[in-house]
Amino acid sequence: MDQVILAEKIESLRRCIKRIEDKQPNKVSTLIKDLDLQDILVLNLTRAVQLTVDIGSHIISNTDETPPQTMGEVFNILLKLDAITATTCLQLKKAVGFRNIAIHNYEAINWDIVNAICKKSLVDFRRFAQEINQYIILQNT
User: Fold this and answer.
1) What angle do CA 32, 35, 36 make, to 5 degrees?
2) Which CATH number fits the domain that encloses residue 122?
3) Per-residue model confidence (pLDDT) at position 105
4) What is the domain extent for residue 110?
């Protein structure tokens, strides 16, 4: 595993999370009315999902596992490698579902859901980063 690449991607993930935290409104009505805020949050959420997939794919590429065919499968393989927990696997697979809607069917985004994700699901990205950092440490010992 290239430690520099992983560190850069984890730092990018941290920046996305921070940007979401800094911009998330107190009320969903604010989000519904503010197109720029919508773009900032959705862009950073989709980036965060993509970064978790990229990090996972990089780790998997250094194993004997069959490469994943879907984004969600990345997390299944990471679970199999004991790199992440079942909870993290499940939550990030859900995040991929949100990402797919955001990328492919933007007009169908439910802003109540986006607001809830911003308030409740950032912990999943943080937990992913912690679990991956722990996995990397264990692999290097």
Assistant:
1) 130
2) 1.20.120.580
3) 79
4) 3-139
Structure tokens at 53: 């997939």
Which residue in 14, 104, 126, 127 is the catalytic one? 104
Residue the block writes with tokens 């950073």 = 44
Q: Is 76 helix (H, G, I), strand (E, B) or coil?
A: helix
Considering the entire predicted model, what is its pTM? Answer: 0.94
99 in active site: yes
Q: Which of 67, 47, 64 is nearest to 56 (CA)?
A: 67
**Residue in 19, 99, 126, 127 annotated catalytic:** 99
- Looking at the 3D structure of the chain, how many domains does it have? 1
- Mean pLDDT, the chain cut into blocks of 10 residues (141 residues total): 90 97 95 95 96 97 95 97 98 93 84 92 96 93 80
Question: What is the model's pLDDT at position 122?
Answer: 95
